[in-house]
Design goal:
Elements (H helix, E strand, L loop, with lengths): L5 E4 L3 H12 L4 E5 L10 E4 L1 H9 L4 H4 L3 E3 L2 E5 L5 E6 L11 E4 H16 L4 E3 L1 E9 L2 E8 L4 E6 L1 E4 L6 H6 L7 E14 L7 E7 L2 E7 L10 E10 L13 E3 L12 E2 L2 E2 H6 L4 E8 L7 E2 L2 E3 L2 H4 L8 H19 L3 H23 L5 H10 L12 H15 L3 H6 L17
Helix pairs in contact: 1-4, 1-8, 2-8, 8-9
Length: 431
């Protein structure tokens, strides 16, 4: 094994999933994270069965995952008049060998962090330290680091993994001519409200049209005394993007009154959207953004992963899931090739092209594309959805997305483990 560790730039979900994977397979690594203190920030995200399988293989099973979220039972699209367009079971209820989890992003992030620190030691995570660039050298790579106290330093590593998000400094150096962040016009407000779960009790609901919609799902088990759960919601409208994003910054706290008027009248016998929005203690505004795909995620001993590699619209609930799959795929390549440039090349060849296509598919609304089709045909209002779009057309559309995103049921269930139990980068995978 190489003397220098693998340097991971960024201690978010992707970076920590990579760190846990490398620790599992015996590759020394150190995580550099810009924040001074890890805190449970963010609202809800979904983790698809392909990612949950990898988490289980990392030793984060149902007991751990139920502390930060709950298994999803249903995925549903609903028209403007409250009638179903499409619904299907999710996770084990759909036939997967693993559940889909809806989790509180911050709590899940802390679970990854605390698990890695408990296994690798507190010195394996350097807080208040941002990787700002790199230089290749004869033995690997030198990372340039800026510290929160204003000082600067360098760290030598065998490899550098850029897990530093959509604003990645590693990606900017690797692709200096990349276009700016892409905004297609969608503006989102996010929040969490304590309320009673609806439908199955653990349903992911997309309501409205592709230009004007709500996404709603619980991210905690109900309190046994009150029956209330944390309900994550995203309120979204589409604006004209031709002038570009005019706000300063990409994320800010917002007042409910700033946007609730967009959802006046969204009251049904099973859901009161204005009441749900007003029930949140705080809301956050951010545009739906991504980056154009790049031709490669690798530059010699440096590789990108997670949002640094493939920041995508959250329309398919697979951004965090793909970051976890990235980490595990990278680990599998290191088992085959060691912690070497060859491993990064194999990882890049396996994922860059296919996942770049998912970025573009999500930009076209991903699985919410069904809302586009219904809106084009009837304005989102109908009595019988079969008169608008056939059941077969709806099912075929969803099957195509699942296959592209890597969580088609039969394919995933039959696939061998990404990293065989007991495999390390110093020995071949067990057969």
């Amino acid at each position: 094994m190489t003397q220098n560790p693998v340097i991971i730039a960024g201690g978010g979900i992707g970076g920590l999933a990579t760190a846990l994977t490398l620790q599992q397979i015996g590759v020394p690594c150190v995580v550099y994270e810009a924040v001074r203190e890890m805190r449970p920030l963010g609202v809800g995200i979904n983790l698809q069965p392909n990612a949950v399988r990898e988490l289980y293989d990392l030793g984060l099973g149902p007991a751990e995952m139920d502390r930060v979220g709950l298994p999803a039972k249903e995925w549903a699209l609903v028209g403007l008049n409250g009638h179903d367009i499409y619904s299907e079971p999710r996770g084990k209820d759909a036939g997967y060998n693993w559940p889909q989890y809806a989790v509180h992003r911050g709590l899940f992030h802390m679970l990854l962090h605390d698990t890695f620190v408990s296994r690798a030691g507190r010195e394996a995570v350097k807080l208040g330290a941002r990787v700002t660039g790199y230089e290749q050298n004869a033995n690997g790579v030198t990372a340039k680091i800026e510290h929160a106290d204003g000082s600067a330093s360098e760290a030598k590593g065998a490899l550098l993994i850029g897990a530093d998000g959509i604003h990645s400094a590693i990606r900017a150096q690797m692709h200096p001519d990349q276009p700016p962040i892409h905004w297609g016009g969608a503006l989102m407000w996010r929040g969490v409200t304590m309320a009673k779960p609806i439908r199955t009790g653990s349903s992911f609901i997309g309501l409205g049209t592709h230009r004007h919609r709500m996404v709603i799902y619980p991210i905690s088990h109900p309190d046994p005394r009150t029956g209330l759960a944390m309900i994550n919601w995203i309120a979204e409208i589409t604006l004209d993007p031709t002038a570009g994003w005019q706000q300063t910054g990409w994320f800010r706290q917002a007042e409910i009154e700033d946007f609730i008027h967009h959802f006046d009248g969204w009251t049904y016998d099973w859901l009161d959207v204005p009441a749900l929005l007003r029930g949140a203690e705080v809301a956050y505004e951010n545009p739906m953004i991504d980056r154009d795909p790049v031709s490669t995620w690798r530059d010699g001993p440096v590789a990108l992963m997670g949002d640094a590699a493939h920041a995508m619209y959250p329309t398919g609930s697979n951004g965090a899931s793909q970051a976890i799959v990235d980490a595990r795929t990278l680990g599998a390549c290191m088992i085959e090739h060691g912690a070497t440039v060859r491993a990064l090349a194999a990882y890049d060849e396996k994922l860059c092209g296919p996942i770049s296509q998912v970025i573009l598919r999500n930009r076209g609304a991903g699985p919410f594309g069904l809302l586009n089709m219904v809106d084009e045909r009837c304005g989102g209002v109908f009595d019988n959805i079969d008169d608008v779009i056939s059941a077969k057309e709806r099912a075929d559309f969803m099957a195509g997305y699942k296959a592209a995103a890597g969580f088609a049921i039969e394919t995933l269930n039959k696939a061998p483990r990404t990293i065989a139990e007991g495999a390390t980068a110093e020995s071949p995978q067990p057969v």
